[in-house]
């Protein structure tokens, strides 16, 4: 069995030696390029946070809604607020971050309530009674609505609470915050949405 | 010569066998493609129609679960919304587009077959074809080289001498070379 193997090994240098350098280096180059591309792809993919969802509805028309009020009788519709900046805040009584953002939200409300900015809190996956109790406890003074079947939240692409949208007077979504809002950020978003804003 | 005829017949038989094997592989691949393209049978009940849409949508609050399979309240609400839209006469495609408009193409369990996402659909097919082509080239090269590297005195050569009309494991020219080499070396162990 040793004879054939020695013959094979004896022949190989001749075969390799007979090849042009291009014939050897082109396949090597192709493999190197493919490996480099895969490495770059992995580096890009692994460097991203897969749980972060980029807001896709910025600049689009805000989905219309007409929802029953939680805090008193009547309804709130987006159409009735046309011509005004609307701050739409999705919240729940079981949401810890909603407690965290409440102070900032209250401060922004106090700053803009007399400037024609409408604040609407949409209850997300909550019991009406529990939500009302939470709102009273937090001292929330803006309109609160229930969202049967979470339909409006789904229309807005909400994945959790809190999420806050700023809607321009002509009905376009101009800002979206996933997680607790801060006073400076929300103030700036509202200022930009107001007529004559940036 | 009977030996030449036998070798030719053997070659033909192997060509036919290879052809049948290749045809079977192509048929199997085509069957897989057809079955995959056809997908599940068309849903009939509302529940099945809801599931057919929901299975293609990602549950936003889960790890790798579709809206159809998730027990999360948001997924339940999404299924209810799909049901009400279907009952209102909205087409499954339009419902999917509504979800994409709200959540982006991220909401789809399978990437869309357009734009940059098309790459992830085409690339595996291109790589599989390239792999097949590479395998064919490599096998042809190996089978072409094999007779040249096999010296006289191997098991195959002895087998050839024992059965002169054996199927042609060597090409006709190699066979002549082999017989000449055996004759030159004396070949005293010839049974005849």
Structure overview:
The complex is a heterodimer of chains A (198) and B (192). Chain A folds into 2 domains: 2-46; 66-193, Glutaredoxin, CATH 3.40.30.10. In chain A, 44% of the residues lie in helices and 17% in strands. Chain A has helices at 2-18, 21-46, 96-112, 128-138, 151-155, 183-193; strands at 66-68, 75-77, 85-91, 117-123, 143-145, 163-167, 173-178. In chain A, strands 5-4-3-6-7 form a 5-stranded mixed β-sheet, with helices on one face. In chain A, α3 (96-112) packs across α6 (183-193). The longest helix of chain A is centred in the first third of the chain and has 26 residues, at 21-46. Chain A is elongated and about 85 Å long. Chain B has helices at 2-38, 46-54, 73-87, 92-103, 118-149, 155-162, 172-184. Chain B is elongated. At the A-B interface, α1 and α5 of A face α3 and α4 of B.
CATH homologous superfamily of the domain at 38-110 in chain B? Cytochrome C biogenesis protein
In CATH, the architecture of the domain at 38-110 in chain B is Orthogonal Bundle
Query: What series of H and E elements makes up the topology of chain B?
Result: HHHHHHH
SSE arrangement of chain A, N to C: HHEEEHEHEHEEH
Helix percentage of chain A: 40-55%
- CATH level-four homologous superfamily name of the largest domain in chain A: Glutaredoxin
* CATH fold node name of the domain at 38-110 in chain B: Helicase, Ruva Protein, domain 3
Q: Tell me the structural class of chain A.
A: alpha/beta
How far apart are the first and last residues' alpha carbons of chain A, in Å? Answer: 84 Å
Q: Can you tell me the CATH topology of the largest domain in chain A?
A: Glutaredoxin
Low-confidence stretches of chain B: none
């Amino acid at each position: 069995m040793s004879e054939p193997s020695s013959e094979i090994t004896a022949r190989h240098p001749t075969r390799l030696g007979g090849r042009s350098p291009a014939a050897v280096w082109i396949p090597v180059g192709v493999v190197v390029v493919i490996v480099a591309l895969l490495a770059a792809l992995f580096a890009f993919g692994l460097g991203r946070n897969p749980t972060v969802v980029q807001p896709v509805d910025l600049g689009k028309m805000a989905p219309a809604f007409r929802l029953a009020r939680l805090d008193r009788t009547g309804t709130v519709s987006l159409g009735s607020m046309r011509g005004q900046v609307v701050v739409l805040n999705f919240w729940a009584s079981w949401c810890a971050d909603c407690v965290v953002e409440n102070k900032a939200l209250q401060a922004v409300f106090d700053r803009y309530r007399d400037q024609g900015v409408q604040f609407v809190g949409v209850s997300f996956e909550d019991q009406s009674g529990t939500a009302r109790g939470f709102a009273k406890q937090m001292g929330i003074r803006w309109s609160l609505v229930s969202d049967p079947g979470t339909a409006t939240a789904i229309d807005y692409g909400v994945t959790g609470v809190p999420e806050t949208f700023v809607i321009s007077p002509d009905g376009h979504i101009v800002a979206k915050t996933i997680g607790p809002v801060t006073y400076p950020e929300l103030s700036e978003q509202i200022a930009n949405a107001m007529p004559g804003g940036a | 010569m009977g030996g030449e005829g036998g070798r030719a017949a053997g070659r033909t038989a192997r060509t036919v066998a290879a052809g049948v094997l290749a045809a079977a592989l192509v048929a199997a691949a085509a069957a897989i493609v057809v079955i995959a393209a056809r997908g599940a049978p068309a849903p009939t009940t509302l529940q099945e129609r809801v599931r057919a849409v929901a299975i293609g949508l990602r549950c936003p609050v889960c790890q790798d679960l579709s809206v159809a399979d998730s027990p999360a309240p948001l997924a339940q609400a999404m299924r209810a919304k799909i049901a009400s839209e279907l009952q209102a006469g909205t087409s499954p495609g339009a419902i999917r587009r509504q979800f994409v408009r709200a959540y982006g193409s991220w909401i789809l369990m399978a990437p869309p077959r357009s734009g940059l996402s098309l790459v992830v659909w085409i690339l595996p097919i291109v790589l599989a074809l390239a792999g097949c082509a590479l395998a064919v080239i490599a096998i042809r090269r190996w089978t072409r080289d094999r007779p040249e590297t096999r010296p006289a005195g191997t098991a195959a050569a002895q087998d050839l001498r024992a059965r002169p009309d054996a199927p042609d494991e060597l090409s006709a020219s190699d066979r002549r070379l082999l017989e000449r080499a055996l004759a030159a070396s004396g070949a005293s162990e010839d049974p005849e």
